[in-house]
Amino acid sequence: MHQVASEFQPDARVVYVDNDPIVLAHGRALLASDSSTAVVQADFTDLPSILEHPDTQRLLDPSRRVAVLMLSVSHLILDDTDALRAITAPIDHFPSGSYLALSHVVLHQAADRAAANQAGKDVGAVWKIRAPEDVEPWTSHLEPVAPGLGDIKDWRPDPDQPPLPDPHPIIRHHLGASERTKRGCEFGGVFRKP
Questions:
Q1: pTM of this prediction exceeds 0.90
Q2: Which among 187, 188, 64, 84 has a CA at the least distance from the CA of 141?
Q3: Alpha-carbon distance 161 to 6, whole Å?
Q4: Which residues, in sequence order, are bridge partners of residue 107?
């Protein structure tokens, strides 16, 4: 992400947040010589620990607009109140004109959600699939950027996107499943803080 940000904004500053020690070690090794980017060890539901981290304070000015990317992470929070707070608190901390990009796995039918959540629980995954109507209120205080909240595959698709490599054989049977069944999607959008 920091490469994309600096391509469009050469003086961009980026703070990644993760609590996985392997991800942290790898990220820090990759970014060792990049003073405009940092990897902060924190739980993304604990905003004070992120904001008070010396690297965050060095890189992000709370009086300046930011872009907060919460992509494919909110379904890792089981409690609905915690998920709402994790999504809204960062953007609420920064000034008007800041942006939030959000995506969350959703399934439309209650029975499908229950089965998927139970399957995750059975293998020890921390995972909560929600309905689109559970996610929609999280951004009600923000202005949607067209086309708004929906299936992210419809959000400004790139006609020049090169084909992706074939997935690993163990998961290949899932390829295109959401398109075939229309039971769910990665639901998201981009929003501006008024």
A1: no
A2: 84
A3: 20
A4: 184
